[in-house]
């Protein structure tokens, strides 16, 4: 074995003292570390990206270490952000020293109040943490390599250098949340057990239409997924979304309804009539019945917590994806964690600057899908079809090539449907829903809906019922047409009797005919 000289060993050891040690860099003052911890407490995506990069001991403040330990313990067990009340409870039960207990509770309030949501803030802190963790990984690896070199000798090129190479390679391959992936042939038993277990407890978000929900795996959409409905203006995109909101509220889900084109009160009135079945035109004349109906939902679904639905209006073209993230984070901070987000609709969001409209709309949909995954919510929205889609809706159906600004909008969607209606169907209140896409289920089939104009609710009907409605309408139109013809012929006879029959009006031919034997001069 080739031993190091004293000078070589002293030189190598001078490199082995990491700048950071086991804590954040000295230039990351208490306020900077406070920002990191507040983001960990209140930004789920930031926490996911940071758990493999941070350990509580990195914080220089003992109070911050304590809070971080409580947070990571809760996250490891439940995979969700803890409420402030939970952390306070853990502080009370796990911190023995009274002064330190008070200090932790006080600092927790400061952390919540100092939280500043926003993508730029998150990315800046994330990059700093990653660079710190990467440097620490390299310095730790370098220190381990020094130990190996001391053990094997600097000129030994066999076992010692093989170990050094392996350690340095692992350090250089260090990445944020690195995951090898699924080892297919090694994990199929575990995979089936895991998926079956997850499916049995997974939240589902429904449309309320059986033919749609049962043709999606699991009976509905899941958290992290994005669905959209498209239709020409006035056919019922917004009503469809409101129906989805009500049906999931009835299942006990917390719903956040974001409107970019309608006043909050107008959305609330629609929800009123759908929840209580009081006709829309009678809401104010029968408001006591409305109040009773709403209160019955509170008792059935909410218990003492009345936060099951929040409706928020943003002016058109004013909200971007960061606006939604920041607003949602503030709601979570105030104790409202939505399960389902209704966005009416993505086409009214603020476009990205210096980008073509078609590219901006496609990116907005992708970012909305990412928002659903980050915030662990299901999102329903609406899309506007192009001119060809508006026309084809009357006789056929809107499909994936009929989207307004970009056909690429449908790619990130987990489900997409189109509402189709002609004038005849509009007059009898029926619609044809075409299933454009179910990522995890059957697609490309018809569903028939009936709209109640008084309560604004959509109900599913079968194909025969749809045909019967249309057939009755045609029969009624024929009867009405015949009645109009009879009325016109009757009026013509009266004229004949009064004015000596100068002409005969033949209604079925739609023209005036001269009496037989009359000359052209007459």
Which oligomeric form is depicted?
single chain
Low-pLDDT segments, ≥5 res: 15-21, 502-522
**Order of strands across the main sheet:** 3-2-4-5-1-6-7-8-9
Q: Element order, helices and strands?
A: HHHHHHHHHHEHEHHEHEHEHEHEEEHEE
The amount of beta strand, in percent, is 5-15%
Mean pLDDT: 81
- What gap, in angstroms, lies between the N and C termini? 134 Å
The biggest beta sheet, please? 9 strands, mixed
The geometry reads as elongated
* Overall helicity: 40-55%
Give Rg in angstroms: 34 Å
Give a count of the beta strands, DSSP E runs of length 2 or more: 11
Number of helices: 18
Class by alpha and beta content: alpha/beta
Describe the protein in words:
This protein is of the alpha/beta class and 522 residues long. Helix content is 52%, strand content 11%. It has helices at residues 6-14, 30-42, 44-50, 62-78, 84-94, 98-113, 119-152, 159-172, 184-201, 210-213, 237-249, 264-276, 287-302, 321-333, 357-375, 387-395, 423-428, 463-499; strands at residues 226-230, 255-259, 309-313, 340-344, 378-383, 415-420, 430-438, 446-451, 458-461, 503-506, 511-514. The strands form 2 sheets. Strands 3-2-4-5-1-6-7-8-9 form a 9-stranded mixed β-sheet, with helices on both faces. A hairpin with a 4-residue loop joins strand 10 and strand 11. Helix 11 (237-249) packs across helix 12 (264-276). The longest helix is centred in the C-terminal third of the chain and has 37 residues, at 463-499. It is elongated and about 120 Å long. The termini are far apart.
């Amino acid at each position: 074995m080739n031993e190091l000289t004293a000078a070589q060993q002293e030189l190598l050891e001078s490199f082995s003292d990491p700048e950071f040690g086991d804590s954040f860099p000295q230039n990351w003052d208490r306020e900077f570390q406070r920002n990191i911890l507040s983001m960990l407490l209140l930004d789920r995506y930031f926490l996911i990206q940071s758990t493999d990069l941070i350990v509580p001991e990195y914080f220089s403040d003992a109070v911050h270490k304590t809070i971080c330990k409580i947070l990571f313990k809760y996250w490891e067990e439940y995979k969700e952000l803890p409420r402030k009340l939970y952390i306070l409870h853990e502080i009370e039960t796990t911190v023995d020293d009274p002064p330190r207990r008070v200090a932790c509770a006080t600092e927790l309030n400061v952390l919540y109040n100092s939280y500043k949501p926003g993508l730029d803030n998150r990315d800046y802190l994330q990059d700093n943490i990653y660079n710190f963790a990467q440097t620490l990984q390299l310095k730790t690896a370098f220190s381990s390599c020094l130990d190996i070199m001391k053990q094997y000798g600097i000129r030994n090129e066999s076992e010692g250098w093989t170990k050094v190479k392996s350690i340095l390679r692992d350090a250089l391959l260090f990445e944020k949340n690195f995951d090898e992936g699924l080892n297919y042939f090694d994990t199929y038993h575990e995979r089936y057990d895991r998926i079956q277990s997850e499916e049995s407890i997974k939240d589902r978000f429904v449309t309320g239409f059986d033919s749609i929900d049962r043709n999606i795996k699991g009976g509905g959409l899941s958290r992290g997924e994005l669905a959209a409905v498209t239709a020409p203006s006035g056919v019922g995109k917004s009503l469809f979304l409101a129906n989805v909101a009500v049906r999931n509220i009835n299942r006990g889900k917390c719903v956040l309804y974001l409107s970019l084109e309608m006043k909050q009160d107008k959305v609330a009135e629609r929800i009123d009539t759908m929840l209580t079945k009081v006709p829309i035109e009678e809401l104010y004349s029968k408001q006591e019945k409305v109040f009773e109906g709403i209160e019955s939902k509170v008792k059935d679904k909410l218990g003492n917590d009345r936060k099951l639905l929040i409706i928020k209006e943003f002016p058109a073209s004013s909200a971007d994806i960061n606006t939604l993230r920041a607003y949602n984070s503030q709601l979570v901070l105030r104790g409202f964690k939505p399960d389902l987000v209704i966005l009416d609709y993505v086409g009214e969001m603020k476009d990205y600057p210096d980008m073509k409209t078609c590219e901006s709309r496609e990116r907005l949909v992708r970012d909305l899908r990412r928002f659903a995954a980050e915030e662990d919510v299901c999102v329903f929205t609406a899309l506007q079809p192009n001119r060809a889609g508006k026309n084809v809706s009357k006789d056929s159906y809107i499909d994936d090539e009929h989207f307004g600004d970009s056909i690429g909008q449908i790619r990130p969607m987990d489900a997409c449907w189109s509402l189709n209606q002609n004038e005849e169907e509009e007059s009898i209140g029926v619609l044809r829903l075409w299933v454009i896409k179910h990522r995890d289920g059957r697609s490309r089939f018809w569903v028939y809906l009936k709209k109640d104009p008084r309560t604004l609710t959509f109900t599913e009907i079968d194909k025969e019922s749809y045909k019967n409605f249309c057939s009755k309408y045609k029969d009624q139109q024929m009867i009405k047409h015949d009645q109009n013809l009879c009325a016109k012929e009757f009026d013509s006879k009266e004229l004949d009797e009064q004015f000596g029959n100068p002409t005969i009006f033949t209604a079925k031919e739609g023209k005036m005919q001269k009496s037989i034997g009359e000359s052209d001069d007459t």
